[in-house]
Specification:
The protein is an alpha/beta fold and 584 residues long. The chain has 20 helices and 25 strands. Helix 2 packs across helix 3. It comes from Rotaria socialis.
């Protein structure tokens, strides 16, 4: 159907380098590429149907999307992999899904898979989606031969498929679309089984919400990881509506160049990026003279009036002369910004709604419901909420008696049920039962309340795990169990939230060890005074860094700052529960 409407229209775009404009693959060409890749996979011994899993271990790219489409054409199930999983998780995923073929772009990831070959006996083939650097080519080919892994290029794969065409074997709605692995509080990741019905119903629901904004063939910038369901769902929505998808160059630090070249009209975001954008705008405003600052404030006031009236329009004075430079940072054509993966600070959301010249909405979801289940309506002037349920799912609140939250008070655990809710975790019935109850409700672990205007607001977290601004989940207890091995630390509490991209920690130093160190270094003061000294803080931070390195903590898990507290956590000071657990 889409091919009949947008067959020769631009579909997938890429840049050869930062100096080049975007080059485009049409819908017909993307269909042809996916058909050739699918045919080649069949020729290489992969089978049609739901017993075949294909790994995709690349950044967002034309090859990522055409590989995924190739899997859909033959009812295969693709399995995204990504760098922050870590080697133990990658081994677990490959073995759990019995991956034989993995598409890879980076040479270091190819070498990683070759190194892990003895632990992943099913892996037989690596497809290179990008050309290897000349200095790595021979090394990789030779090492792959040593462990009996076949190396093919994407071009070779397409050539094979072109010479050996195979008819499509399309899926049914209840067939699996992908297995999307999501991190848990501790241990190995869980594989969420998402079906074609799940993602198509969500794409339809998104179309209903966003269609008033878009009146022509639109363009999206793809830079959020396609390994996560949030970005996948948005890109499927774009394909279903004949939009253009432009892939970033691979370095988020150069995203501004890609935005200038692409000039997108739709931009999915995470709070980390929007926070940085806000900080940059504020840094630009601060040095302005009083007249220019007056003009900027007048522009904000005028745009505030529009937002309060539930409308977004380009003002011939304020947008053209005062806010233009801000809007040009996003390419100058953005109509809609969708923020997800973590909460966005209400003051920042209010500000961006006024200066971007676009609708800015916040959504909520989890991997288990294809990334999105609620979204603010276009023109909604409120902040501090996650909007209303999409038409593909229902929302209810469930009692959380341990935390004194009760649905009768319009507050409780947020539960989701509908066409976009996953069918369970792959080969993990126990975790599936924890997430899905007998009536099919997905228990999110987030505590929410209905606000008087009808939207939903997240107010707490039932589980200890939290999500940072870039969308990464952090299990604080695991990090605390690493830091506690420092001889200088008696107790530790790790904290983070969706407004920051890193964790912080409250440390109670070991009094005996710290006082001994102070005597040896001729540092005076009692425990409370020592906790305020910079050299003591630096000492403990440096020791924590050694533990982070020794235990391979990821960057977003590391505590970037600490507060030294002189008094031990206890039941008496209300910092420990009666069972001696840290209160969170």
């Amino acid at each position: 159907f889409i091919l009949s409407i947008a067959g020769d229209e631009r579909c997938l775009g890429y840049r050869v380098d930062r100096q080049s404009p975007y080059q485009w693959v049409s819908y017909e060409e993307a269909d042809q590429a996916a058909t050739e890749v699918g045919s080649a996979l069949i020729e290489l011994g992969e089978n049609h149907g739901q017993n075949t899993f294909i790994g995709i271990y690349t950044i967002n790219s034309v090859e990522w999307m055409t590989t995924a489409l190739a899997c859909h054409f033959h009812s295969m199930i693709y399995v995204p992999l990504y760098d922050t999983l870590g080697e133990p998780a990658i081994v677990h995923i490959i073995n759990q899904t019995s991956l034989k073929t993995i598409f890879v772009d980076k040479p270091e990831n190819v070498l990683c898979l070759i190194k892990l070959a003895s632990q992943v006996p099913t892996l037989k083939r690596i497809i290179l989606t990008k050309q290897l650097p000349s200095d790595k080519n021979t090394e990789i080919i030779n090492k792959a031969k040593e462990v009996a892994i076949e190396i093919m290029t994407y071009t070779q794969l397409r050539d094979l498929g072109r010479s050996k065409p195979v008819a499509h074997h399309p899926p049914t709605p209840d067939d699996m679309f992908e297995i999307c692995y999501t991190s848990g509080t501790t241990g190995l990741p869980k594989g969420a089984m998402l079906t074609h019905k799940n993602v198509v119903c969500l794409a339809q629901a998104a179309t209903e919400v966003f269609s008033p904004v878009f009146t022509e063939l639109e363009t999206i910038i793809s830079y959020l990881p396609l390994a996560h369901s949030y970005e996948q769902t948005i890109e499927l929505y774009c394909l279903c509506n004949g939009f253009k998808i432009g892939y970033f160059s691979g370095d988020v630090r150069q995203l501004a160049d890609d935005l200038a070249a692409l000039k997108p009209t739709l931009m999915p975001c995470v709070p980390r990026l929007l926070n940085r954008m806000y900080d940059n705008i504020q840094a630009t405003i601060r040095p302005l003279n009083s007249f220019k600052r007056f003009l900027f404030n007048q522009a904000l006031a005028a745009k505030s009036h529009d937002v309060e009236k539930h409308r977004i329009k380009r003002h011939m004075i304020w947008d053209r002369f005062v806010l233009k430079r801000i809007q040009q940072r996003l390419g100058g054509r953005v109509k809609l910004i969708v923020s997800g993966a973590a909460p966005l600070s209400p003051p920042i959301l209010e500000f961006l709604k006024r200066v971007c010249g676009a609708y800015v909405v916040e959504g909520y979801g989890q991997t288990e419901c294809c990334g999105i289940s609620t979204c603010q309506m276009l023109g909604d002037p409120t902040t501090g909420n996650i909007g209303v349920p999409l038409n593909c799912n229902m929302i209810k609140l469930a009692d959380v008696p341990d935390m004194q939250y009760f649905a009768k008070d319009n507050v409780g655990e947020l539960c989701i049920k509908g066409a976009n809710v996953f069918k369970g975790y792959f080969n993990d019935e126990e975790k599936t039962r924890e997430a899905l109850d007998s009536e099919g409700w997905l228990h999110t672990g987030d505590v929410a309340r209905w606000v008087p205007t009808g939207q939903i607001q997240i107010v707490d977290r039932k589980k200890h795990m939290f999500k940072l601004s870039q969308g990464e989940y952090v299990a604080p207890e695991r990090i605390e169990n690493i830091y506690i091995h420092s001889k200088y630390i008696a107790q530790v509490f790790v904290y983070g939230n969706g407004y920051k991209s890193f964790t912080v920690a409250i440390i109670v130093p070991d009094a005996e060890v710290l006082e001994k160190y102070a005597r040896e270094k001729n540092i005076t003061g009692n425990m409370e005074e020592l906790c305020k000294k910079k050299e003591i803080k630096d000492l403990i931070l440096n020791d924590m860094k050694q533990l982070e390195k020794a235990n391979s903590l990821k960057g977003f898990e590391m505590s970037k700052d600490i507060y030294l507290h002189p008094e031990l956590f206890s039941i008496e000071n209300n910092l420990l529960t009666p069972t001696m657990k840290t209160k969170r």
